[in-house]
Amino acid sequence: MRTVSELTEADDPAWPEIHQELASAPVPIKILPVHPANGARNLYALQVSTRSALGALALHTGGVLVDHGWLRVFGGGDPARRMPGLAEVNDMTAGYPPTLLVGVDVIGGRFEINGADPAALGRPGSPGDICYFAPDTLEWEEHLDGHSSWLSWLATGGTTSFYEDLRWSGWAEQTRNLWLDQGFSSYPPLFTQEAQNNPVAISRKVVPLAELHGFLANSAGSR
Q1: Count of domains for the chain
Q2: Among the four 15, 118, 161, 216, which has the fewest Cβ within 10 Å?
Q3: How far is 52 from 49, CA to CA, in rounded Å?
Q4: 80: containing domain
Q5: What is the CA angle 59-82-168, rounded to 5?
Q6: What is the end-to-end Cα distance of the chain in Å, rounded?
Q7: Residue 94 — pLDDT band, cuts 50, 70, 90?
Q8: Cα–Cα distance for residue pair 192/136, rounded to 1 Å
């Protein structure tokens, strides 16, 4: 295990470039503050250097909110806003997980980095690729070829077209009012034919994200 000092000794840290890229995004992006101790703890758990985008976010941010918080990118955590850090959301007390959750959206979607054997977990793509669990299909979809590419996609406004068919009138204001451990449960569920045939008839309520993720996982497993 490398120490925090060793992990931060990078000659070319990734954060300045990432910060500049996020600051110039065409969509609303908010960088959450992080307590130095939380940043260091998450960096140590991840065992990646600050040359990487993952290490940079863990050390320098409490997380990143995209599109008024529609998409939450994990970093070192911000307890005041109920935003967990990467180590907590991936339960790294038990060691390194087979995939790494790096972001969630308010409708139950999940962005994860593939581990060493994606096929064994039923995931598309190669090790290190970003995959997306889509709440409207209940399937894992290959998304981008790495965490840095994913951040660049976010910074260039990729979410606008990606979520175009899943947003509704007033979504931005409703999303801004959520705690960062909350999302929207839909009825009928987004993966049903009823919801897809008549999206304007969907009703939504605020629920804990953990509850929403559990429902979608159970629904996917029962198919």
Answers
A1: 1
A2: 161
A3: 6
A4: 4-158
A5: 110
A6: 41
A7: confident
A8: 8
Where do the H-state alpha helices sit in the chain? 4-7, 15-23, 36-46, 53-60, 86-89, 147-155, 158-162, 171-176, 193-197, 209-221
Cβ distance 66 to 82 under 8 Å? no
- Residue 116 resides in a domain: yes
The verdict on residue 192 lying in a domain is no
Alpha-carbon torsion (112, 59, 35, 6), positive or negative: positive
Amino acid identity of residue 146, one-letter, is: G
pLDDT tens digits along 33-65: 999 999 999 999 999 999 999 999 999 999 999
CA distance 139 to 220: 7
Let me know: does 20 contact 151? Beta carbons within 8 Å: no
Whole-number Å distance between alpha carbons of 173 and 180: 14
Exposure string of 15-35, with b = 16+ CB inside 10 Å and e = fewer, is beebeebbeebebebebbebe
Assigned domain for 121 exists: yes
CA distance 130 to 125: 8
Token pair, residue 203, equals 């009703």
Domain containing residue 146: CATH number: 3.40.1580
For the question of whether the overall pTM of this predicted structure is more than 0.90, the answer is yes
Exposed, middle or buried: residue 156 (CB in 10 Å: 0-12, 13-18, 19+)? middle
- Does 217 map to a domain? no
